[in-house]
Amino acid sequence: MVRAVVCRALGAPESLRLEEFPSRALRPGEVRVAIRAAGLNFPDVLMAAGEYQLKPELPFTPGMEAAGDVTEVGAEARGVSIGDKVIVKMRHGAFTDEAVVTPSQLTPMPSTFDYAEAATYLAGHGTAYHALIDRGRVEPGEVLLVHGAGGGVGLAAVEIGKMLGAIVIATASSDEKLAIAKSRGADHLVRYDREPFRDAVKRITDGRGADVVFDPVGGEVFENSMRCIAWGARLLVIGFTGGIGSARTNLLLIKGASVLGVRAGEAVRKNPKLGEIRLKALLQWAEEGKLRPSISHRLPLEDYAKAMRLLLDRKAIGRVALVMD
Question: I need a labelling partner for 299 at 20 to 30 A (CA). Which of 5, 178, 229, 256 fits?
Fold first, then answer.
């Protein structure tokens, strides 16, 4: 029997249930993967609550990314073999012991990663890559302001931003989160509750402001970011965990600034070539030891609600993974 976390009614993480199902036979072109770890992302929580742009038909299993071993290869499935260690990319369905997917959803695991690291890599770092490279076009020497730098996608942005040669200002809500950001390359650290970040950015940059803002928080954070930007700044909208902010068009006009929405997955669906370039770079950087997810919690599958709560309550530092024994 296969265990899976099932959402039968939209709501809080505690409304989901862990259920068992028999394995189903493979159809032509399908592959069976024994899932060893699954990564949690904030959209998983939003999707279960019915608050995400993708609204799967009920019932469904949350989870956008996982890692495991190929255990069966169906007829007509090409390019994959039994025993391959793989990353599994899904729009939902990853919180389970076993997944039936197509070869196009599989990516070889970096040899430098364990299963939990592999299961928490591509979504966060892929979003940061798309934001900073495809959308923000960060240049060496530019000032990059990263909000929510203690979170998984924020830490990924710190890592990639530093690798691109940016001067990284990391903001977070605790010293512990900022310490992790510093260990990943942040040049300057700002705690929200100790100094208004817009004042800190002006102080750090001698009044010039940030060239690029990476914002997964939204709300007042987004609104205040417009008051500490340089001429020609790019404000990257990653998410809205802190609410939906309003764009002051006068501030954007005065600074010649741009607000850019970031949807890494949708961008690939619209232009698959972007995904090929991104994936090749991310896998190469992982093999070279330049990038690695920071995982603060590894919990068993049955603790899915606790794991999702860590994201909702902002208690995770970096990534959270469900691990299957």
Answer: 178
What secondary structure letter does DSSP report for 284?
H
Helix (H) / strand (E) element for 118: namely helix 115-119
Q: What is the model's pLDDT at position 245?
A: 87
Q: Which residues of 220-239 are buried (b: 16+ CB within 10 A; e: fewer)?
A: ebbbbbbbbbbeebbbbbbb
Rounded distance, CA 233 to CA 213, Å?
8
Phi, psi of 229 (to 5 degrees): -115, 155
Contact 283, 255 (CB under 8 A): no
pLDDT of 325 reads 77
Alpha-carbon span 192 to 75, nearest angstrom: 55
Residue 187 sits at φ, ψ, to 5 deg, of -85, -35
Using DSSP, state whether 122 is helix, strand or coil.
helix
Q: What is the mean pLDDT of residues 134-153?
A: 96
Reduced to 3 states, what is the DSSP secondary structure of residue 297?
A: strand
CA atoms within 13 Å, Cβ hemisphere of 217: 23
DSSP 317: S
| Cβ–Cβ < 8 Å for 237, 218 | yes
Average pLDDT over residues 160-185: 96
Q: How far is CA 264 from the centre of its chain?
A: 9
